[in-house]
Amino acid sequence: MLTHFIGGEPVAAGKVFPVHDPVTGAVVRQAHEADPEVVDRAVRAAREAARDWAGLPVGERAGWMRRLAEGIEARFDDLVAAEIADTGKSFDQTRTLDIPRGIANFRAFAEIAAQRPDDAFHLSGTLSYTVRRPLGVVGVIVPWNLPFLLMTWKLAPALVSGNTVVVKPSEQTPGSAAVFAEICADTGLPPGVVNIIFGHGPVGQLLVEHPGVDGLTFTGSTRTGTAIMITAAERVKPISFELGGKNAGLIFEDCDLDRAVEGAVKSVFTNGGQVCLCTERLYVQRSIFEEFCARLAVRAQEVELQPMISAEHRDKVLSYYALARSEGAKVLAGGGVPLFGDHRDSGYFVEPTVVTGLSEWSRFNREEIFGPVCHVAPFDSEAEAIDLANGSDYGLAATLWTTNLDRAHRVAQRLEAGLVWVNTWYLRDLRTPFGGVKLSGIGREGGTRSLDFYSEPTTITIKLEQSDA
Ligand code: 6OD
User: Where exactly are the transmembrane stretches of this chain (predicted)?
Assistant: First the structure.
C-alpha cells in the first residue's frame, strides 16, 4: 500500500485506490488518495522546511542533488521494476532512458546551478546586480507517460534553486515516486523539502488552489493545463507548462532513406506513442512517398508493443482509429487490437498504426491522439512542407530528415516549434531550453531556463558616491 510522504514521514490517510498493470489489467498496487486535509498538511510541511532549505548555500543544495542521484543509483533496480509495473514499458527503455534520466537530471542541475553567475551591471555612478530567490513552495504535477523522468526533471531544478516541493504523481503511475520518497528519507534529505501525495485529478486541483503553493509546474494535456492556468490566475501564480503536441516529421527526397524510416519508426512508436514529442504527422516528398509508406508500414508491424496506460486511454486511441476510417483514411498498417493468446489479451494494447489519405482539416490530423499512430501525406516543395508542418494548433517538436545542410538550417528556423530535431529524434542536452509554442505550452525549462522559472530575481541598485581622495 503506497502512503503519502509528508514532512519526511509516511502518511497513511485517505481512502484507497487501485493501480493497474497495463499489460494485463490486473491490480498491481493500491495507494492512498489525498483529501483536502492531506494536501494542506503537505503544503504546510513544505512551507515549514522552506526557510532553512532556501537559506543553504547553493553549493550545499547541489551536494544534496548529487546525493539523491547516488540514492537513485543504489535503488536503480527497484525503480525500474516500479516503473515497468505501472506503465508496461519495456525493460530496455526503462533501464536506458527513464531511470538514468533521473540520475542525469539531478547531476545536471547540481552543476548548472553551482556554476551560474549572478548578473551585475556597472553604469557611471551606479552598480546594479541581481540576487535570485526561490519561489517558495512549488506544486509539481507529473504525468503518467514518463513518470520518473519528468518528476525528476522538475524536482532537480526546483530543489537546487531553494524551493521545497509538493509532488502529485499521476494516479496511474505512483510507484517510482513512492520509491523516490524512500530515497529522500534514506539520504537524510531534510524533512519537508520533498513531499509526495497520491491521488486523482481533484488532488492536483487542491494543490493548484492552495494559497501556500507559490508556483506550479505541469506536464500533460492541454485541457488540464488550461484548467490549471485558470485557477492559478486567481493568485497570479507562476506556471510552467509543457502540454500536448501534434508533431510533424518532414522527410525530404535527399534524406538517407534507411535512417529516415528508422527515425520515423522511433519517433512515432516509442513508448507506445505516449510521449508529447512523438510524431503524429509525417510529410514525405512525393518522389519517395510510395517507397517510404511501404517501408514504414512493414516496420510498424515489427515494433515491440507497449500497452496504453489504461483501458480508457486505449479506448480513446481506438476511437481515433475508427475516426480515421470514417473520415476516409486508407489504413497502411494496424488499425486494431493485437491478439496474443495469453495474459496480455486483458491488457490495454493497440496495434501500431499508419494511415494516409486524410485532409489536413480532418479531426484525426488536428487532434493529439497520444498513441502509436501517424498519418502520412505527400508534399511537393520545401515551402509546402513548412506550411504543412506549421498548420497545426500545436507547436512542441518537429523532426526533419535531409542530407542538405542548407535546407536543414533553412527549414528548421522556419518551423513553429519549440524543438526541432534534424536527422534524429529526442536527442537531449539538458542545458538547452525545452518547451513548446501555441497550444503546446508556456515557458521553457532546461538549463538556466529552469533556474529562471524556479526563482525570482531581485535587482539591487547602489549609487556609488565619487571618492573625494
Ligand atoms: O526529456 C525531457 O526533458 C522532457 N521534458 C520530455 C517530455 C516529454 C513529454 O511527454
Answer: none
Q: What is the DSSP string of 61-104?
A: HHHHHHHHHHHHHHTHHHHHHHHHHHH---HHHIIIIIHHHHHH
320 grid coordinates: 481515433
Same-domain pairing of 300 and 179: no
**C-beta 450 within 6 A of ligand 1:** no
> pLDDT by residue (tens digit) across 80-107?
999 999 999 999 999 999 999 999 999 9
Q: What pLDDT, in 10s, does the model give residues 2-39?
A: 999 999 999 999 999 999 999 999 999 999 999 999 99
- Closest C-alpha to ligand 1, atom 9: 276
CA distance 163 to 381: 49
Q: Is the whole model's pTM more than 0.90, yes or no?
A: yes
Q: What is the largest CA-CA distance in the chain?
A: 92
Q: Is the same domain home to 116 and 216?
A: yes
Task: Give φ, ψ of 79 to 5 degrees.
Answer: -65, -40
Query: Residue 467: inside a domain, yes or no?
Result: no
Q: How many domains does the chain have?
A: 2
- How far apart CA 370 and CA 242 sit, in angstroms, is 14
Atom 1 of ligand 1: nearest residue by CA position: 428
For the Cβ of 274 lying below 6 angstroms from any atom of ligand 1, the answer is no
Residue owning the nearest CA to atom 3 of ligand 1: 153
d(CA 220, CA 77): 27
469 within domain boundaries: no
Q: How far apart are CA 97 and CA 74, in angstroms?
A: 17
The range of the structural domain enclosing residue 201 comes to 4-243+440-459
Enter the DSSP assignment of 417.
S
pLDDT tens by residue, 176-234:
999 999 999 999 999 999 999 999 999 999 999 999 999 999 999 999 999 999 999 99
Asked if residue 159 lies in contact with residue 194, where contact means CB atoms within 8 angstroms, the answer is: yes
> Which residue type is seen at 225?
G
Q: Is the CB of 109 under 6 A from ligand 1?
A: no
Expressed in angstroms and rounded, the spacing between residue 418 Cα and the centre of ligand 1 is 12
Mutate to test the pocket of ligand 1, among 97, 99, 150, 429 (most ligand atoms within 8 A of CB): 150
Q: How far is the CA of 157 from the centre of ligand 1 (A)?
A: 14
**Residues with a known catalytic role:** 242
Question: Which residue has the least CA distance to atom 4 on ligand 1?
Answer: 150
